[in-house]
Each structure stands twice: as structure tokens, then as C-alpha cells.
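1st attempt posting a full record on here, be nice pls
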Amino acid sequence: MDGTEIRFELAEGPDRHADLWSLYKWLSDDLSLRGHARIDKVAEGTAVPGRMGIDAEAVAALVSTAAAVAQLPLSFDAWRRARRPQSPITINVFGADAERIAEIMRAHGQTLPEPEPEPAAAVDPEPPAAVDPGSPDGAPPRPGRHLP
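the predicted structure (as C-alpha cells):
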């Protein structure tokens, strides 16, 4: 069950860095996640001098056990209710199979999107009926008619 990363990304906004720092601290301090998930800051390419908070673009949780899959959504939802961040939050899951992603989504109270329908197979139209090349009007041959 190791190797699944759940990344929390917040959209740009005036409180983005403070919200990221708050989420990082909240998840890092959650005793029920210790030993089950590693919480990291995902750094931006460049730091901005004089900016308060962390220079990060996301908070990542590397999940190592089923207990973390169950606890992480609870901890995240508690943080979201307590903090009430103004920035939209995107949750990305890396390194998991389809069933694992479905499990994580259900734990976050999300429903799985309906699979997109397969495009209908293109059907070739019926080929044109045989045309008698000797007929002046191109009409199909008539029974009993002989060609020269």
C-alpha cells in the first residue's frame, strides 16, 4: 500500500501561503497520521524574498497504510472546517491504481465521475450498387438485358 502521494494544491490568492502553511502544520501535527503518512511541502521553483509563510506550491502526503487513507480525509476536512480557506483546493493522487483512487475519493466524500462513453464506431456507408458501365444512363442492368 505504499507509494501513493496525495497532493493538496491551493489556487493563487492573498491567503494562499498562509493556508498552505496552516494545512502543512495541521497534517504534520495530527498524531493519528504519524507513522502512516509522510507530510511534505512541495517547493516552488523560486523563493520570493520578504514573503511570509512557506514558499511552497502544495502540501503532499505520502500514504503508506490503509489507516492513513482513512484518516487523511478526516484530518483534511477538520482543517478545512476550522480554517475555512478562501482559495479553491485541488487534490491530486499519484501512484495509485483505479481502485485505490476510488477509495480515496469516497473517503473525501466525493463520487466517481461517470466514465466517458466510447465514441460510436464509424460505420462505412453501403457501397453503391453495381452500375452497368455499358448503360448510357448509368442505371443498373435489368434482367434479360444483354450488353453488347
